[in-house]
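Q: Hand in one record:
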Amino acid sequence: MYESQGIIPAWHGIWWFQGSLVIEPYSQIVVNIHGAIDNTQTVSQSVNYANPDYYCMYDPESGYNHTNYYPTPSSVIPTSHYLKAKEIGLGNGWTVSVNSPAFFIFQTQGIDAASWADDVNNIWYPEGQNTQTFACFAVPNEWIVDGVEVFSYDYPDDCQKRLTADIDGGAVWLTKYQGHSLYRNVDKAATEALPENAGKLVYDYSLGVGESTDPSGIDAEASMKQGAHIIFQDFNNSTEDFHERQRCSLRD
């Protein structure tokens, strides 16, 4: 119902960085959604997010103050790395799905994120559901940097596209509650063509789940540890661009 309007609805609320952020080539940033602490203290196979380089979604004043989801971040994470939020839905936790999210990132243009979020004219409701429960932000498609549509193996008959084809032409499947993650496939030809990668690429990738694996055969994480530069695939289609990984790369 929103495809013809040129928007994607952001349900319940949005988050943004406090300042400008530049991601250098061949580098990454980590943004924690829930629990920016050393989670290995309670679950040994979890992830330690107590890292001063990491960012986290933590803004209790926004209304997102459920302590089970948002414990006080690790003291090593600077407060300047806390993302700010605007809540428009009900409840005190951002309602991102843990098994089948339709996740996208965007940049506001010509206006700062906080001012845009405060404008009630940017709130959108599904037809006939004009209540706070269903409130969404109407994000213009041209603002969206990228998105990934995730389907759950556990609910195959209930999975339906939420991101329009111009944002993500497919979907990637995920098994819930196994500690798995989704990882972007390597652009094999482009990565192998980089002269600085000679002798640094690690093959025989074995962390894919079943038939969901990186078709390039390159172990991106192991290769980066050898100093390789990885170019990831981006066809704007999650079916082709992602695979399910046995464990979060942050644990390696």
Observations:
- The mean pLDDT is 95.
